[in-house]
């Protein structure tokens, strides 16, 4: 391993793939948030004819002309997708698929034509289809370094413009920003990051370089700036991992390993990310189910008492107030007993002192929600979504108008006539 | 046996209950409006009855049996915006879709089905448009095609999601005519509606819904200032202003 | 039959089979699923080879079909886990394809499992591998395969025609009427998979995608009737195949690539000049209408 790292060739490849990972990660976050992830797929496929045309014109495998050619046709492809969607009934997904397959077809036609007819040293154009990171040389890497620095610097300088145009283009226009220019610039930069990545991972897999790091980052943060940085880190890390794993094994392709690395990071995040991961979500959902059915039963009993004045309920009464399926009702009742909120005496159930207080709170919260929804305009300033719809945690001054409304509609929970401030 | 009866339906997304403990028994042969503020769960209520959104709890029966067994007798008119009107097909064909449930797997619609579909189009005043491509219909005409499709289902109970939204005067008339016809045939129609001004004219019964059922009953009994206040609260004054001070109750 | 005729026949069968699933995918706004499935077929082929250690046609076919359906399942899973649709497709297919490429280079490099070939296809070799079946001799294996798939597609389309139509147009009503929407979704995914697999060896992943998406998209701009959309896209697909072959022969280049190029040209023609939706035609008509309005 260390021998390999000492090898200058490997070092260049390593620097190259990491830089590519970082730039495509950073720009991929914007593509993802604009719901244009698959556009990257179309761009990379549409680059192939450009590479071939550039080769036919220049006659050699020099990197810069090839990249410029790739950029031009990728840009045309992107433009066509938008034109098809704008000027006809064709939907985005169809337009993307159409452009990517047809442009790739054209690319293959040209490539085969070159392979069969050109005389010069054309071998190596095929590399662009699947990528050949290991073939990167120092001059290639120099080019990447310049491109990467340029792209990252522009992103840094125009971050807030990119942010607003990604979030709300019309609003940006309203602010008087040159949206057409900024949009075009961002698009061009995404195209550029795709095009420079082609040599390493190839046309087919390039899309993943844009998508995987960005979506991974999205699982760890809600802030765009953090996401962009994180996405760059994930991209760079994938480049590093892919290269290190593939280097010691002869014939092992680097590009696919980079993709597998970044996708694996995504799958890990999908499952284990602390707030948005599936595991956390599943646990939260289970808790929610439990607490919802608990709350439903508590409120049901409370309202039963409110209506009938009877303090004890038979099992039939319980079933009538709450239509939870048999097993769930049983479990819920057991849990309520365990929490010492509900007491059972042979045939009947009744609240404990603690239980009735709790039920009062639950009912109160529920009815406050109802008031809130009736007067949403008036209460629009309350951060209820964030507060998990917990009205009781609001400061007294905010609760007061809701209490007044409850009294007005005679909906104030009446079994336990005590205000929350006694708590 | 009531056409629709629900027992304590609750639907929740995240922690916020969208509708909670809604129970009602819809009487047969009535036009029933479901009204309430935005986000009060009107569409969710009918979608949960039709099994299109998952319920947290509650039971539903259509003429005494679970919905799954009664699909043949339930008609549904989704919101017009829920489909892609660029779909390559014509008006008659869309109406025929209403019959797919009865026709059954594999079999094709026959002449009789087509004849019936044409009659349904005629009932909404659209027979002249039978072969018109749906992308070339106006919004109101599209809505009428949807209604004709529901008619073709030949159901006993109909659920309609905001059929009056964004339609022209002619379509509005056609819809009212159609509702009256359905009623005279003893069908039951539940309509999600948001225009309070017209509730009294259109519906025999009304449900006021705001997460919970506020009131449900014959319009003249239930559609009262007090219940509206309970449903819309502070927004009612706002609504009054919006409609140039016309009191919906007047 | 001559060598040329076999190639054209194979390509035509492929293009018709693809256009059938394509119409449904385009109308359901799921066109990119075909891109995903046609790529992951590679993983299925490699896995089948690694498990059976042979290049037996049927095992390969089954392996690839399973990979295709799994792709659809994974995309659905990610979707329901809250991953946005485009990203879900992008992640799943690149991941599975990358694994396919790695497996090939690790275990199957010496076998006839050429990654490049799988993307570009090699129609020119088709007529040389023949299989005698049902007493018919000298028919290329690819023709057998794709014919069977085509027949399956046609039968399923006829059987479930109205169900496909309704669940594509209005899934809500379809679900409310008790039409098995989920079953139809996976049936279509299955059809897409077997079509991709059968076409794959002959024409490569990219032509599969082009044939699935471009002819239906072209037909979508030419007709307002679902039945005609199927017929038009089949015709356009066959025309692309035939013209593509002759242009490729003329320029001595890749046949599948040229066919894909032709589908694009047909689409472009429809986009510009379709009598009802063409951009140029619409413009001319608008000018004409404004003019006559001014007169009035």
From TrEMBL, chain A:
Keywords: Cell membrane, Membrane, Transmembrane, Transmembrane helix, Transport. It is a multi-pass membrane protein. The keyword Zinc-finger does not apply. The keyword Transmembrane helix applies. The chain crosses the membrane at residues 12-33, 38-58, 64-84, 96-114, 141-159, 171-190, 196-215, 227-249, 255-274. It is found in: Cell membrane. Belongs to the ABC-3 integral membrane protein family. This is Manganese/zinc/iron transport system permease protein. It comes from Geomicrobium sediminis. The lineage of its organism: Bacteria, Bacillati, Bacillota, Bacilli, Bacillales.
TrEMBL record, chain B:
PROSITE patterns: ABC_TRANSPORTER_1, ABC_TRANSPORTER_2. The keyword ATP-binding applies. Keywords: ATP-binding, Nucleotide-binding, Transport. Pfam families: ABC_tran. Residues 4-236 form the ABC transporter domain. InterPro entries: AAA+_ATPase, ABC_transporter-like_ATP-bd, ABC_transporter-like_CS, Metal_Ion_Import_ABC, P-loop_NTPase. One of its GO terms (molecular function) is ATP binding. The keyword Transport applies. Belongs to the ABC transporter superfamily. This is Manganese/zinc/iron transport system ATP-binding protein.
Automatic annotation (TrEMBL), chain C:
The keyword RNA-binding does not apply. InterPro entries: ABC_BtuC-like, ABC_TroCD. The chain crosses the membrane at residues 6-26, 33-51, 57-75, 87-108, 142-161, 173-196, 202-222, 229-249, 255-273. Keywords: Cell membrane, Membrane, Transmembrane, Transmembrane helix, Transport. It is found in: Cell membrane. Its main location: membrane. The keyword Cell membrane applies. It is a multi-pass membrane protein. Belongs to the ABC-3 integral membrane protein family. This is Manganese/zinc/iron transport system permease protein. It comes from Geomicrobium sediminis.
């Amino acid at each position: 391993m260390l021998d390999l790292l000492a090898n200058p060739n490997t070092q260049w490849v390593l620097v190259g793939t990491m830089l590519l990972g970082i730039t495509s990660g950073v720009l991929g976050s914007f593509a993802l948030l604009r719901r244009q992830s698959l556009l990257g797929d179309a761009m990379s496929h549409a680059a192939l004819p450009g590479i071939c045309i550039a080769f036919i014109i220049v006659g050699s495998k020099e990197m810069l002309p090839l990249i410029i050619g790739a950029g031009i046709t990728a840009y045309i492809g992107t433009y066509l997708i938008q034109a098809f969607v704008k000027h006809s009934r064709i939907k985005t997904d169809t337009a993307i698929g159409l452009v990517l397959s047809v442009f790739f077809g054209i690319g293959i036609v040209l490539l085969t034509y070159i392979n069969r007819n050109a005389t010069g040293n054309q071998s190596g154009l095929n590399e662009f289809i699947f990528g050949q990171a290991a073939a990167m040389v120092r001059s290639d890497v120099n080019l990447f370094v310049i491109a990467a620095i340029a792209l990252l610097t522009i992103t840094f300088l125009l971050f807030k413009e990119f942010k607003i145009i990604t979030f709300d283009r019309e609003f940006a226009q309203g602010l008087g920003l040159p949206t057409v220019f900024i949009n075009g610039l961002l698009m061009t930069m995404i195209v550029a990051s795709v095009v420079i990545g082609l040599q390493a991972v190839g046309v087919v897999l390039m899309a993943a370089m844009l998508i995987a790091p960005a979506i991974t980052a999205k699982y760890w943060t809600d802030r765009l700036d953090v996401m962009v940085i994180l996405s760059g880190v994930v991209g760079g890390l994938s480049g590093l991992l892919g290269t290190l794993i593939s280097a010691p094994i002869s014939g092992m392709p680097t590009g696919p390993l980079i993709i597998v690395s970044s996708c694996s990071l995504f799958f890990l995040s999908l499952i284990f990310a602390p707030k948005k991961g599936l595991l956390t979500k599943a646990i939260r959902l289970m808790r929610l189910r439990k607490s919802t059915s608990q709350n439903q039963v508590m409120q049901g009993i409370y309202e039963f008492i409110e209506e009938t004045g009877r303090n004890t309920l038979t099992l039939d009464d319980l079933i009538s107030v709450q239509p939870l399926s048999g097993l769930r009702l049983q479990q819920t009742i057991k849990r309520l007993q365990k929490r010492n909120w509900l007491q059972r005496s042979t045939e009947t159930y009744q609240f404990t002192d603690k239980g009735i207080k709790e039920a009062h709170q639950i009912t109160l919260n529920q009815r406050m929600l109802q008031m809130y929804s009736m007067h949403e305009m008036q209460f629009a300033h309350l951060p209820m979504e964030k507060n998990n719809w917990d009205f009781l945690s609001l400061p007294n001054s905010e609760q007061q108008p809701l209490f007044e409304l409850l009294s007005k509609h005679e909906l104030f929970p009446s079994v336990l006539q005590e205000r929350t401030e006694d708590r | 046996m009531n056409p629709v009866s629900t027992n304590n339906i609750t639907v929740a997304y995240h922690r916020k209950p969208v509708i909670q403990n809604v129970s009602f028994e819809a009487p047969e042969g009535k036009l029933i409006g479901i009204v309430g503020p935005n986000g009060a769960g009107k569409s969710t209520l009918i979608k949960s009855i039709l099994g299109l959104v998952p319920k947290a709890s509650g039971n539903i029966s259509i003429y005494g049996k679970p919905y799954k067994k009664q699909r043949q007798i339930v008609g549904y008119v989704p919101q017009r915006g829920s489909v892609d009107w660029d779909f390559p097909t014509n008006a008659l064909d869309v109406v025929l879709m209403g019959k797919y449930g009865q026709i059954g797997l594999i079999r094709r619609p026959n002449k009789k089905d087509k004849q019936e579909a044409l009659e349904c189009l005629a009932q909404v005043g659209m027979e002249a448009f039978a072969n018109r491509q749906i992308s070339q219909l106006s919004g109101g005409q599209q809505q009428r095609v949807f209604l004709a499709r529901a008619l073709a289902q030949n159901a006993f109970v109909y659920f309609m999601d905001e059929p009056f939204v964004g339609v022209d005067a002619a379509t509005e008339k056609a819809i009212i005519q159609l509702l009256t016809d359905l009623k005279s045939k003893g069908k039951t129609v539940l309509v999600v509606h948001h225009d309070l001004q017209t509730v009294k004219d259109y519906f025999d019964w009304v449900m006021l819904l705001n997460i919970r059922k506020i009131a449900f009953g014959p319009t003249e009994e239930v559609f009262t200032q007090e219940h509206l206040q309970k449903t819309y609260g502070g927004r009612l004054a706002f609504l009054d202003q919006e409609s140039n001070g016309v009191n919906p109750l007047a | 039959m001559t060598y040329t005729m076999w190639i054209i026949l194979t390509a035509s069968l492929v293009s018709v089979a693809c256009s059938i699933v394509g119409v449904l995918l385009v109308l359901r706004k799921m066109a990119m699923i075909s891109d995903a499935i046609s790529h992951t077929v590679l993983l299925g082929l490699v896995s089948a080879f690694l498990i059976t250690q042979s290049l037996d046609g049927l095992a390969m076919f089954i392996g690839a079909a399973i990979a295709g359906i799994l792709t659809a399942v994974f995309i659905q899973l990610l979707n329901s886990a809250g991953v946005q649709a485009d990203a879900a497709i992008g992640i799943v297919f690149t991941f599975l394809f990358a694994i396919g490429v790695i497996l090939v280079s690790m275990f199957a490099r010496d076998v006839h499992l050429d990654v490049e070939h799988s993307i570009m296809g090699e129609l020119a070799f088709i007529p040389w591998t023949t299989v005698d079946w049902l007493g018919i001799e000298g028919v290329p294996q690819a023709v057998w395969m794709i014919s069977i798939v085509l027949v399956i597609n046609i039968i399923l389309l006829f059987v479930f025609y109205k169900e496909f139509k309704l669940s594509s147009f209005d899934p809500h009503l379809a679900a409310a009427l008790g039409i098995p929407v989920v079953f139809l979704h996976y049936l279509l995914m299955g059809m897409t998979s077997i079509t991709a697999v059968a076409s794959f060896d002959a024409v490569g992943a990219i032509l599969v995608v082009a044939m699935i998406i471009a002819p239906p998209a072209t037909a979508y701009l030419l007709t307002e009737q679902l039945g005609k959309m199927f017929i038009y896209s089949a015709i356009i697909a066959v025309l692309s195949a035939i013209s593509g072959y002759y242009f490729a022969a003329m320029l001595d280049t890749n046949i599948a690539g040229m066919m894909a190029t032709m589908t694009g040209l047909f689409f472009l023609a429809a986009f510009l000049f379709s009598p009802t939706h063409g951009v140029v035609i619409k413009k001319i008509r608008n000018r004409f209408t404004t003019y006559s309005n001014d007169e009035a």
